[in-house]
Design a protein that fits this description.
The chain has 542 residues and is mostly beta strands. It has one helix and 33 strands. A hairpin with a 6-residue loop joins strand 5 and strand 6. The N and C termini lie far apart (148 Å). It comes from Fervidobacterium pennivorans (strain DSM 9078 / Ven5).
Length: 542
C-alpha cells in the first residue's frame, strides 16, 4: 500500500512537473512573442510620431507659404496680381505680387487654406491647401484668358482624388486628423483624380510629388491627362519625411485649380551607408534665354486662339552623373534620389527639390532673371540621410538680344548680285570680352516654287565671332546651289540671319549661358526658333 501510494504520488509529481514545465515554456513563448510585438509596435509608433513631427514641430511654430506667379512656365513674372489667403470662407490676408512673389506666414497644422490669385485680363488660379506640415513653395501661373475676358470668366472648379497603395486600388489610404496622409514603407502610390467644373470644360490635368507640375521644362516625372480624369503611379523612392503632392487642372480658358496634399513618407533605412559624392558634369549649369513661348503642355488645341508671342522664356538646366555612370559605383551605395539646392548669394542654400535616382538633369524655371546670378548644389539621398553637398556651378543668365543696323533693308532694290550682308547684335554690351557671338545666314529664291535656298558652305555648323558687328561678303564663300556665288539679276530674294545667339562659357563657375534670338535650324537651341523677320530685296543688273 505504501509502495503503491508512493508510486501514484510520484507519478502525479512527475505529471505536475511536466505540466509546470510546459506551462512555463508556454508563458515564456507567449511573453517572448508579446515582447517582440510590443517593441515592434513601440518602434513603429515612434517612427510615425517622429515622421509626423508631433514631437519636433509644435503647432505654435510659424512657417511660410511662398508663392511665385508667372504668366506661363518659364515665362515672365506677373506683377500686381491680387492674392487672397482664405480660411473657413473668410479672407484672412491679401497681398499683391511684386516681381511675381508674395509670402504668407501661417501656423503649422492650421489649414485648410485657399489661395485665390486674380488680375484683370487674366484667367483665375485657385489653390486649395489641405494643411501645412512644413514650409510650402508654390510656383504657379496666371495666364491671359484664351476665350473670354476675365470679367466674363466664371468657372467653379474642384478636384476629387483618392490615394491607393497599388494600381489595383484595393487599399485606399486615409488621412489623419490633420488631413495628412502618413505613408509607411511604400515604394509608390497610385493616384486617381477627377476634376469638376461649372462652365468651361477641363483640358488638362497633372499630378506631381515635391513641386507643382510644370515647374520643370522638357523632362518632368509627372502624371498627365488630356481630360478631367487622371490616374497613375507616382514614385516615392526619392522622398522621405514631409512632402507635398500637387494635383492640377486647367480649363479651356486657362483657369487653374490646384490641390496641395501634405504627405509624410517614412522609410526604414540602413544607417550604415557609403554615400555617393555626386559628380558634376562639365559644365553642369546651363542658362537658356529663348525668344519663344513655352507652355506647360506640349500639345495645343487648334481651335483655340494663339497667345501673343512673348520674348521671355528663361530657365536653367542642371546636369550631373547618375551613380550608375559614376566612377564611384563599385565603392559607394546606390542612392534612392538626389536633393537639389539653390542659392541667390552663393552662401545660403535652400532645398529646391528632390528627384529620382534615375534622373541626371533638372530644369529650374522659378525666379530666374537675366543678369542675376544663381548658385546650385546637389547631394545624394538615402531615405532621410543625405550625402555630402556638392557644388554644381553658378550661372548669370544673359538678357535677350536683338539685331539692328541691318543691310540690305527690307524692300531694298537694285541690290548687288554679290551683296554684303551686315547687322549688329545688341543687348549684351556689359558682357563684352566674356561672350561669343553666334550667327548664320540663309537666302531664299522667291521666284522658284520648289523653294530653293542658299547658305554659305563652311566647315563649321555656324559662324563665331568676338565682335557684335557682323559682315558677310557673299563673294567670300561658296553657297549652296548658287553657281559663282552670285545672285541672278532683277530677281526678288529674301534673307535672314537664321541663327542669332550669344554664348558665355563661364569655366570658372562651371556654367554656360545662352541668349538665343533665333535658331531656325536647331543648331544650339533645344527648340526651333524662327527669325522674327525676313528681309525682301530685289537685285539689280550688277
Amino acid at each position: 500500500m505504501h509502495g503503491g501510494h508512493f508510486l501514484v504520488s510520484w507519478n502525479k509529481r512527475v505529471q505536475n512537473r511536466n505540466e509546470l514545465i510546459e506551462e512555463r515554456e508556454f508563458v515564456r513563448q507567449m511573453t517572448k512573442g508579446w515582447v517582440y510585438k510590443f517593441f515592434a509596435s513601440v518602434i513603429i509608433l515612434f517612427l510615425m510620431l517622429l515622421s509626423s513631427c508631433i514631437i519636433l514641430k509644435p503647432a505654435t511654430e510659424n512657417v511660410e507659404i511662398s508663392l511665385y506667379v508667372s504668366e506661363y512656365n518659364s515665362g515672365p513674372a506677373v506683377d500686381d496680381a491680387n492674392v487672397e489667403l482664405i480660411k473657413d470662407g473668410r479672407v484672412v490676408d491679401t497681398k499683391r505680387t511684386s516681381d511675381g512673389k508674395v509670402r504668407f506666414s501661417v501656423k503649422l497644422y492650421s489649414g485648410p487654406y485657399l489661395l485665390r490669385i486674380s488680375k484683370n485680363g487674366h484667367a483665375k488660379t485657385t489653390i486649395k491647401i489641405l494643411n501645412i506640415h512644413s514650409p510650402l513653395v508654390l510656383n504657379t501661373t496666371l495666364r491671359k484668358t484664351k476665350l473670354l475676358p476675365s470679367e466674363q470668366n466664371q468657372n467653379e472648379m474642384n478636384i476629387l482624388f483618392d490615394i491607393y497603395t497599388s494600381k489595383n486600388k484595393v487599399s485606399k489610404l486615409l488621412f489623419d486628423g490633420n488631413s495628412i496622409y502618413n505613408i509607411f514603407g511604400l515604394s509608390y502610390i497610385y493616384i486617381s483624380a477627377q476634376s469638376t467644373t461649372s462652365n468651361f470644360p477641363v483640358s488638362f490635368m497633372y499630378a506631381k510629388l515635391g513641386n507643382p507640375p510644370g515647374a520643370e521644362y522638357l523632362a518632368s516625372p509627372r502624371l498627365f491627362a488630356e481630360s478631367n480624369v487622371l490616374e497613375g503611379e507616382l514614385d516615392l523612392t526619392p522622398f522621405s519625411g514631409k512632402v507635398y503632392l500637387f494635383i492640377d487642372a486647367y480649363d479651356v480658358n486657362d483657369n487653374r485649380y490646384e490641390v496641395v496634399v501634405p504627405l509624410t513618407v517614412t522609410k526604414l533605412t540602413d544607417l550604415k551607408v557609403n554615400p555617393y559624392v555626386v559628380e558634376a558634369d562639365q559644365p553642369a549649369v546651363f542658362a537658356y534665354n529663348l525668344n519663344t513661348t513655352t507652355k506647360y503642355y506640349s500639345t495645343q488645341d487648334s481651335s483655340m486662339p494663339n497667345q501673343s508671342k512673348s520674348s521671355t522664356n528663361l530657365y536653367v538646366k542642371l546636369s550631373w552623373k547618375r551613380w550608375s555612370e559614376s566612377m564611384q559605383k563599385s565603392k559607394t551605395d546606390e542612392p534612392d534620389g538626389y536633393v537639389i539646392y539653390k542659392s541667390y548669394d552663393g552662401i545660403k542654400y535652400e532645398k529646391l527639390t528632390v528627384v529620382s535616382s534615375k534622373q541626371d538633369t533638372y530644369y529650374d524655371t522659378s525666379d530666374i532673371k537675366p543678369g542675376s546670378r544663381v548658385w546650385y548644389a546637389i547631394a545624394s539621398k538615402y531615405g532621410g540621410i543625405e550625402g555630402p553637398k556638392v557644388f554644381l556651378g553658378s550661372v548669370e543668365p544673359l538678357p535677350m538680344i536683338e539685331i539692328t543696323d541691318v543691310s540690305p533693308l527690307d524692300g531694298a532694290t537694285n541690290v548687288s548680285l554679290s551683296p554684303t550682308f551686315s547687322w549688329k547684335i545688341s543687348g549684351v554690351e556689359k558682357y563684352e570680352g566674356k561672350i561669343k557671338y553666334l550667327y548664320d545666314i540663309w537666302i531664299y529664291d522667291l521666284t522658284v516654287n520648289s523653294g530653293i535656298f542658299h547658305y554659305p558652305i563652311v566647315d563649321v555648323p555656324y559662324f563665331t565671332s568676338d565682335s557684335s558687328i557682323v559682315t558677310i561678303n557673299m563673294s567670300s564663300y561658296a553657297w549652296k546651289d548658287l553657281p559663282d556665288a552670285k545672285l541672278q539679276p532683277g530677281k526678288p530674294y529674301e534673307w535672314a540671319p537664321e541663327l542669332i545667339a550669344v554664348m558665355w562659357n563661364d569655366n570658372e563657375n562651371n556654367s554656360l549661358s545662352l541668349s538665343v534670338n533665333c535658331d531656325y535650324n536647331f543648331k544650339i537651341s533645344p527648340v526651333v526658333i524662327a527669325p522674327e523677320k525676313y528681309y525682301l530685296f530685289v537685285t539689280g543688273n550688277k
